[in-house]
Inverse folding.
């Protein structure tokens, strides 16, 4: 991962559980914040800490636009997106 990468990511509480969509330029740090309860009140409240989907961008504006677009999607579309790449909803944090 280069310093100029931006990530749109999806966290889940469990398989087909609560979903959180975010954007960051440091995925490891952001995930550590989420898991410590300091990344987001929503994530802390619903224990949404399993990294189930990631997209990489070189432009922050592209990443932010994608995050906003995904947040507007219907839940079933988000589930299909996750399951195209990660049908078992495995935690992908070991890949970063």
């Amino acid at each position: 991962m280069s310093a100029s990468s931006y990530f749109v990511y999806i966290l889940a509480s469990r398989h087909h559980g609560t979903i959180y969509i975010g954007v960051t330029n440091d995925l490891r740090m952001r995930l550590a914040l989420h898991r410590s309860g300091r990344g987001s009140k929503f994530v802390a409240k619903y224990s949404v800490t399993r990294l189930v989907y990631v997209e990489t961008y070189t432009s922050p504006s592209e990443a932010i636009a994608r995050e906003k677009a995904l947040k507007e999607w219907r839940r079933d579309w988000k589930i299909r997106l996750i399951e195209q790449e990660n049908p078992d909803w495995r935690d992908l944090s070991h890949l970063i």
Q: What stands out?
A: Residues 6-95 form a domain with the GIY-YIG endonuclease fold (CATH 3.40.1440.10).
